[in-house]
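hey can u run this one w/ pyridoxal-5'-phosphate bound, need the structure tokens asap thx
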Amino acid sequence: MTDPDIILSLFSRLRGRFPALEIDSSGQKRLYLNSGAGSLMVDSSIRAMTEAGQLNPMPGQIASPEIATADLHKTVRQLAADFTGARRPEEISFHFSTTGALFNLAFALRKLFQPGKNLLVTDLDHFANITPWETIGRAGGAEIRTARLTSELTLDLKDLLSKVDSNTVLVALTGASNALGTILPLADIISEIKRKSRALVVVDAVHLAPHAPLDVQEFGCDFLAFSGYKIFGPMIGVLYSRTEAQKLASPYRVETNRPEPPYCWEQGMLPNQLLAGLKGAFDYLMDAGSQAKSGDTPTYPRKLFLRAMESIKKYELELSQYFLERWRRMDSPRLKLYGISDPRRALSRTPTFALEILGLKPAEVKRQFWENHRILIADGNHYSAVVVRHLGKKDLNRVSLAHYDGPDSIDRFFDGLEHIIFKLNKSSL
Ligand SMILES: Cc1ncc(COP(=O)(O)O)c(C=O)c1O
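ok here u go:
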């Protein structure tokens, strides 16, 4: 088989690993097109969480059940390091969520935010990577700057770089927009930022992580966060902190907590079930990586993650192109798509599409998709500054796919869309 054939047969097999793909929690058939809000859980993650109920609650060094729990913590930390490309497991810490991780981080870096200094956030980000910086930065007296968007709703890199100077202490930016799907060329942007300043760079990789490989060495970032429930596992936040950057931080910790990384970054006992579930998701991705190519199968987790995520990226590129081509063919004055819409530029986006049906409120669009077609899409602001600040809208619809979707998911969506537009046109005659 050629590599493209392997990829196609791989993705049709991987779909079978998601028990909730077609059947919702009430046992009904439906199509889930809201993976941007939270991906479906993979079978190995669900199983691992159930089995973790048997674990000894506390990790330890003496009794064998304690050792098993300590081993789980150690294994997941190492896998998270492999998933992100971190050099050592001490650079990984676990948090309640990405939002929680970034609030913790902002607090830990509070001493940097002083009068005369500035920090930069962007209009493309989720508020999880804006509000912590604005809140703690402003409290310390630092100036808050905002990088704007272009008319095509991508980040205006010229504007961003013009706002970085020798007093910039931190730049917070996203890997990919959860509202529009736009992917940023992180390595290029960060190297430019670092050429102009000594600013720390914090990347929100929550939306990027399920769609493309993460590589903190290639990106050149100092911190990066992602969430387990967007990569086919449970709700848990993961933070990468570069060893050199850790030295600039004073994380808040209780006096008796161990003072060295990664422990000093974490508050309280780690959640065993969530860590086991996260490991189940990592195991799935490594399994996908081992099947993604003909020839030798690598055994290193880092290699397996890279293979899995490269294949997912390739496969999803085709999904995005197909979606955008079908959107073009609709050619309806009632339809508006936000973000990159040219199928030839689909490599710069994830299969996450913000859209509007003119003449219908987003909540009504969502209701009609659900009630008439059993398709679950999103409405709302998606906690995204693009929607709230840049477009000044209260809400937009969003259709977001993952690698367990196929062209058939897109066909079903467009059948529903055509029907809704047809009814709307008829009612306004
Ligand atoms: C891009 C992005 N960043 C941050 C978050 C927040 O993640 P968490 O729910 O883990 O705090 C989300 C959640 O939707 C997101 O999409």
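The CA atoms of residues 106 and 133 lie 6 Å apart. anyway lmk if its weird
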